[in-house]
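Module 6 notes. Inverse folding takes a fixed backbone as the condition and produces residue identities as the prediction. Think of it as a translation problem where the source language is geometry and the target language is the twenty amino acids. Below is one complete input and output pair. Work through it position by position during the lab.
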């Protein structure tokens, strides 16, 4: 049985004060949630405030990116060790917004993942197709390429410690959630990639989260699919009540 993960990606939202206020409201609402891992990814300046607020709770903190060098003249970048010290246990890697706006490639996804793992962080590696790729019947091909160039290039030991997130770009921030069946089919194809590259056991142990317009009113249908091992939630994770409703679905 794969343990489910419900993760919130705050993107570029919430100051430190807003982060503290969120945790004050959120933690009591999920105090009884033993059925899944809960993760929240605030922007860098709010990480330490989040880690402090989450201390002693079951909520893990994630960074939204990580650089692959340990230190050096890399203005604007943050290392995995620095993130771990700030209280992070996870790092989101290769989010489609990083791929679209900041030149992220499958190769840099692999480098970031290795660095995160070396520092003891759990990478949440994101993959997903564009609308034109889905409409052109290229979804499996795109997912296969992103898998092989990114998480598929890790060692088997490294791969056993990552989480994958399937985030179809057309569903992100659009309110157009993938149907549970569409999401499950994509997850199966990613799991097949893992089986081919690593082993059947590695594939069946892999946890794959679905992301893209997950809301309190569609989480139940998504989680009814055995293939979906959790969710990566954007907009609906910003409000304590709505994210708690997703966790407690
Ligand atoms: P939304 O839930 O706002 O569609 O965002 C999804 C996402 O990008 C999570 O990483």
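Target side of the pair, the amino acids:
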């Amino acid at each position: 049985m794969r343990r489910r993960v419900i993760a919130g990606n705050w993107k570029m939202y919430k100051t430190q004060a807003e982060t503290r206020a969120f945790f004050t409201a959120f933690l009591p609402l999920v105090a009884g949630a033993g059925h899944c891992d809960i993760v929240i990814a605030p922007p860098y300046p709010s990480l330490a405030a989040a880690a402090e607020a989450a201390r002693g709770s079951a909520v893990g903190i994630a960074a939204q990116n990580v650089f692959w060098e340990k230190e050096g003249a890399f203005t604007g970048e943050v290392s995995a060790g620095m993130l771990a010290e700030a209280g992070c246990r996870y790092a989101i890697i290769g989010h489609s917004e990083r791929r679209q706006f900041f030149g992220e490639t499958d190769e840099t996804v692999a480098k970031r993942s290795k660095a995160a793992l070396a520092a003891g962080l759990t990478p949440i590696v994101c993959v997903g197709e564009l609308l034109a790729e889905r409409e052109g019947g290229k979804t499996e091909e795109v997912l296969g390429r992103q898998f092989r160039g990114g998480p598929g290039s890790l060692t088997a030991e490294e791969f056993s410690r990552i989480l994958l997130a399937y985030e179809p770009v057309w569903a992100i921030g659009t309110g157009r959630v993938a149907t549970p069946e569409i999401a499950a089919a994509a997850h199966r194809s990613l799991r097949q990639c893992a089986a081919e590259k690593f082993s059947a056991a590695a594939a069946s142990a892999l946890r794959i989260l679905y992301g893209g317009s997950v809301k309190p009113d569609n989480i139940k249908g998504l989680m009814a699919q055995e293939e979906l091992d959790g969710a990566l939630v954007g907009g609906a994770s910003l409000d304590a009540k709505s994210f708690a409703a997703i966790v407690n679905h």
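Reference fact for the lab report: The two ends are 18 Å apart (CA to CA).
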